[in-house]
From TrEMBL:
Keyword Coiled coil among UniProt keywords: yes
GO cellular component: centrosome; cytoplasm
Keywords: Coiled coil, Cytoplasm
HOOK N-terminal domain mapped to chain residues: 8-54
Stretches assigned to coiled coil: 168-333, 400-629, 693-751, 783-920, 956-1047
Name this polypeptide is given: HOOK N-terminal domain-containing protein
Pfam families, sorted: HOOK_N (PF19047)
Keyword Membrane: no
GO MF annotations, alphabetized: dynein light intermediate chain binding; microtubule binding
Organism annotation: Panagrolaimus davidi
Amino acid sequence: MGEKVLHEVSAHELNKILLLLLGCAVQSEQKEHFINRIRCMRTELQAAIVGEIQKITEDSGHLLEIQSLEILPDDHRFLTVLDYLERIMKERDDYANGILEMAQNRTTTDLDEYENVSNGTTTSSSSTNGDCPTTTVLNGNGKMYKEVQYVTRSPSPSTQERHGGIENAELKQQLRRLKYDLEHKEECINICQEELQSRDEEIAKLKGERQKLISDAYAAKDLTEENEHLQEQILGLRKLEVENEQLKSKISQLSYYKNMSSQFEHDNKILQESLQMAEDQLQETKKRLEVVSEIEHKLHDSQLALKAANDEISKERDRIDELLIENGKLRREVKDHSYKRLDLERHLEAIEEFSTPNESFNDSLQSQLDVHNRSAILELKLENQKLQKQLEDSSKPGEMFELKEELAAAERKAEEKLSEIKKLVIELENAQDAKNRAETRLSSIRIEHESLTQTLNETRRQLSAVQSDLTIRKEDEILQKRVRELEQTVTSKDESVLTLEEEKKRIETQLEKTKQKQKESRHELDTLKDEYANLETALAATERSKKTLEAERNSLKARVESLEDKCDQLNVKLVNYENLERRYANSENLLIEKSNKIADLEAENRTTKQQSELEMKKAQRLREDLVSEKCRIGDLLSRLRTVCNSIRSNGGKLSNAEELMNDDEKLIDIIDDVIMQALNAARREADALRLQQQLQIAELDDLKKDIESLRRAEGELNESDDKVKELVMENKNIKEQVTLLQERLRKLQVEDSAKASELQAIKRDMEEIHNKNTNNSRHSPEIAKLQVQLRNAQLQEELHREDNVNLRKQIETAIKVKTEYEKKLNSLQATQDALIADYNRLENLHHLLGADYDRTKVELMQLKQRIKVERMNGSEISTREKMNIEATLRSEREESQKILHEAEIEISRLQKELSDFRRENCAMLRNTDERSDELRRLRVAECSQKSTINSLNGTIQQLNHVLSGKEMEIATLRRQVDMLRQYNGDENQSLIKQIELLLVKNQELHERSLNDKDTFHALQRDLQEQLVTLRRNKEKLEEKIMDQYKSMDSRKIKEKQTLMKRAAKALMPKVS
């Protein structure tokens, strides 16, 4: 502007600057700064500026007064203000752009000149070329344009301009520093954002771990619930075994139901009395309403009391609602406690049942022992008969030896089982210690579960906070949309500012319309007064309903007191239920201990079975060895018998051979004949022995069959299939041994050379067997006791097996339930994963929305600052222009506003009263509906209770009939039990006598067997001596025969005769 030569352009730009300065001087926070700048100007400019300020203050056309806008309606005011603001904004923007361009050009030229002066040099172009290109901005009627002209060089800058240039340079340095600080802060913000992301990831991991822990806690809960469910099923199964005791418990329950029915009847009577009281109160309220109709002129005083009463009624309603909610909760709790009580009673009954069957079990054990004694006596009789037969048939004690060895093995097994029982007792103690440790672990797991629930609540709170943040962000977006709409409206209403002058003319017409509206409002006030009178009548009706409500409130108070009494009774019952729950917990612990003992016993049974199998294998091997030894003994005995028969048979023939002593050839023939006859007799005796052995084997088979039949009978009583299998294997082994014996008999004819060594071994074996027989005869009573103990143990094993079968069935059902719960858990885990994914998405959206929210905040702050500046600039100018217009209309408008304000106050007051009355009426209607519903429910409950009482009476009668029948059956069963006990006692006495006789016979048989053994040993010694002599003679004869056969070829017949004579002479005295 200063470089422009044209007068019009420079004057126009000066006017713009002056207007801007005036605006800043009039409305700005830095008035003093602009005033100081005006004082620094020339006096002519200062005088022109003062004249302009006087024009603005004196002429109202340049100003727009806010008070003048109050005459217009709301829409017109808003449009006029927006038009003024839009026009001012446009002018402000044009002025600011022009000033900025000029200031930039001026600062560039000043800096160049300052640098040239400071360096002491001048450009050659400026000295030679006096003209320089310049650009100017012209604003004609609000339009911008540029021109390039060559103007003469401006003079050197002044000191003020130089100072301004220096200040600009310093400001640029400050801007650079600020930019550097901003970059540094942005880097810090990025670092913080990265840290936040890492922390968010850590939080997500922790949340995942927490969810896993929560899922584990839920799984542990499910397992505990499954265990409880299984325990309840076990108790239910045990209840089915004892029905008589359940019927007794039902009788006690029926007595409880009778008491409850009497209580319900008492409650019904109380409700009927309360209804009668309510009807009496209704009649009294009707009478009072007739009296209240005479006191309508006291409404003003009663309205204040009504408000207080309404507040009290609302409070009382809230209290009543709370009491009703508490009543519902208490009823639910009563139902829950009743169910729990029933469960606890069932558990207690099951525990009593579990304790009672022990007595019956003991009775059954006595009966089983009696039966066992009978079977044992019968078995002893059979064994005695068989022993007698064996003693009569044969003199061999081999089978007795086998039986005694089996008894010794049984004693060993019993001792081993006793040692195992001690070990099992120690293992039970260890299991109890482990159980205590598991209980401590359970307590720690419960504490962790509580901590996890707390963390869950905290996460829910955090989620609610996140949701609130999301709602806030949505509201910010809505605000942004509204701001954009306002900006659009601002641009649209800039155009409406031009139409304000036309609207001023319309204001006068609108004032006339307002007067007409005032008249209409007066008519409306009259109608409102009529409505007010109607409302007063409604208030009277509400007072009447209020009194009825007070009566109902009193009745409700009485009910509340009765309910409190019931609550006290329920608290007492709750204490009893808690005691029952403790007992139930103790019973559950006992059940767990017993289940652990059963598991331990199962393991013990398995180990005992394995050990019994090993012992049976050992017994089989020992039996095989015994059979082989018996075979050897039989062979030796048969050989001895053949030798004795041969001696007896040959003795007579040798005595007749004395006549033939001279003839050697005849003697040789006779000896050959004797030897051949002895051999033939031995063969015949061997065949006879074979037949005898076959007969003995047949007898042994019969005995074994009898033993197998007895063992099978024992197996049926004991249900032991393993022993039957072992007996079958023994039969197979015995048959194989019989075949082996037959093969050995065939080989005996060849094994004559080994008889001496075998006889010596037989002597030793016989002595050992004799010692064993003496030892076994001593241990016979102990073996009987061990057999009784074994059978008792077998009975216990059967009971344990039945329990194991039941437990296996329960375990299978538990496994099925567990699979179902696992499926449910998998579905829940899938839903949790989906929720976690949604949560992560929401967090990402949260971060994005937070960034958008920060940006919108910054933009809103900027917009607010701009709007404030624009308002400050345009409001004072518009108010001053319109002060004169509003001065004339102010008085009339104030009067009309006062009238309208009073009317509005009255209307608002009446509307409030109407809304209050409507609310009260609605509340009254609701209360009446609720009361009617309650009455209906009570009547329905009475009918249902009566029906249940009738049904319960019928069931009581039926149960009484059933009980009488059951008691008769019990009496008959008791009589039968007494008879059976007497019969068992008589049989026991007779059996004891028979046992004593059998024991006497056994002793006699033992004595006979010992005597027979002594005679047998004496015969054996004689036979052995004879065998020794026979062997010596046989050896000598064999040597002589061999020598004779050798000399037959070399010598002559004469020499043969002399040799035969010599042999005869040598043999004859030895045989005699």
